[in-house]
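User: I'm preparing a small set of examples for a lab meeting where we compare how different chains pack in three dimensions. I only have the primary sequence for this one, and I'd like the structure in token form so I can line it up with the others. Please keep the answer compact; I'll paste it straight into my notes.
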Amino acid sequence: RHYGDHREVSIKDDVLYLFFEKLYAGIKEKGHLAMVKTTDLRNWSDPVDVLTLPCHLSFPFVFEDGGSVYMIPESNELNSVDLYQANDNLTGFTYVRNLLKQPRTEDICFNHCDSHIFKKDGVYYLFTSVSYRWTYALELYYTDDLLNGQFKKHPASPVCRGNEFGRCGGSVIHLDDDYYRITQDCHVKYGENVSVMKIKKLDKNSYDEELYKR
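Assistant: Understood. Below is the structure token output for the 214-residue chain.
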């Protein structure tokens, strides 16, 4: 078995859940998403498959909002960003709605990679990376209503271009009143390095960030 590069950790009711991309080495199959859990970081449950689709899945971004747990998986082959909701014990997810959809053109190599949402001041900001002619552009969208609202393209989008910082390597982190974006360096090879960008400004009208640590 091979456990893919993308993992997401979530804590709920004093239980730590680890969601990850699952593949079988040497077998031509599409990745699906699984979960293990623990209460003490020593004893872990057996893996449970939580989401399988006809397409390859990775980057299981899991978050809680309004008392419900949701997931946005990377489904690059579907050319869309979709929202799923967890059952009570987080062992399965069901489709809720499509958040973004972009037709694939001959210029698009990878469509909607490593998408995730960050909520700030009641606004849901959606970060997603698209590779145009093998160069990543980090696109930003927003809405006031996760379940019913339309995600509008941010006026500063794309907020980053290039293969060094243009693809995210995790979700946005809020720490000590500051905000950080995790990136993965793909300018030589995929996922070669991880860097941290500090978000200096994020609202509906503007976005600004700077390199914090390579």
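A couple of notes for your slides: Residues 49 and 117 are 23 Å apart (CA to CA). The longest strand covers residues 108-120.

User: Perfect, thanks.
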